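Title: Comparing notes on inverse folding

I've been comparing how different people in this forum approach sequence design from structure. To keep things fair, I'm posting one structure and asking everyone to reply with a full sequence. Here's the target:
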């Protein structure tokens, strides 16, 4: 399992049903190979999932479309009842390093070149780079990658909408088209800085080098972006 990316209508998103009354045991199940976790509950029944109703997504989308039509310059829409989807997983470490590389790339080609051959940075270095990217906001080169969107909708404007979703939970919604542009630009920058990074395709193991891991994860996202924009569909991630 990794960080999932999917191009699909939003009613295909699945949520784990958390039921405090569900039967459980404090004993690990047969075959559990990790040390017991003090106070942990192990469910005795299969996990249950739910998805939002199509009509709820449509009502939410239409309200959002009306509110943001002036800023977007278009009426936001997509085929929500459609059940088409395409999904892939990116390695968790690669997905994180992709964002780190995007944050460094915003500082210029010379800074990006310093990552050639390097392995995973320290947590403090990661945090400092990502916090700096957030502080730059839309003045940075990669807002769709770095500013916390987990759902990208099919609109053209380079904008991130912060609004309650269909559940009433505040979320950030970016542009699938502009995300595709940013991933393409970042891949070009990685390839220029380290041409050897392109050997790390999705079929290979996750590389230890920062740029190789970022290249591999960016390939996954690029493929799902291409499907989303071709289908004029939302794109979302579990990350």
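Reply #1:
Here's my take.
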């Amino acid at each position: 399992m990794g960080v999932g990316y999917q191009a699909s209508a939003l009613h295909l998103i699945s949520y784990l049903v958390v039921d405090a009354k569900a039967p459980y045991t404090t004993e690990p199940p047969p075959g559990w190979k990790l040390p017991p976790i003090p106070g942990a509950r192990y469910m005795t029944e299969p996990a249950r999932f739910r998805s939002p109703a199509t009509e709820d997504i449509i009502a939410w989308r239409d309200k959002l479309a009306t509110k943001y039509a002036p800023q977007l310059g278009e009426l936001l829409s997509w085929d929500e009842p459609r059940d088409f989807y395409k999904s892939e997983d990116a390695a968790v470490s690669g997905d994180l390093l992709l964002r780190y590389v995007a944050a460094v790339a915003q500082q210029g080609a010379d800074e990006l070149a310093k990552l050639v051959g390097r392995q995973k940075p320290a947590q403090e270095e990661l945090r400092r780079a990502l916090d700096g990217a957030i502080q730059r906001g839309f003045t940075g080169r990669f807002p769709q990658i770095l500013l916390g969107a987990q759902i990208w909708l099919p609109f053209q404007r380079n904008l991130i909408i912060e609004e309650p979703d269909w559940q009433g939970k505040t979320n950030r919604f970016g542009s699938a088209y502009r995300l595709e542009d940013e991933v393409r630009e970042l891949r070009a920058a990685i390839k220029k800085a380290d041409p050897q990074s392109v050997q790390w395709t999705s079929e290979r193991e996750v590389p230890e080098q920062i740029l190789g891991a970022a290249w591999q994860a960016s390939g996954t996202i690029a493929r799902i972006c291409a499907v989303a924009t071709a289908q004029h569909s939302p794109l979302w991630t579990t990350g």
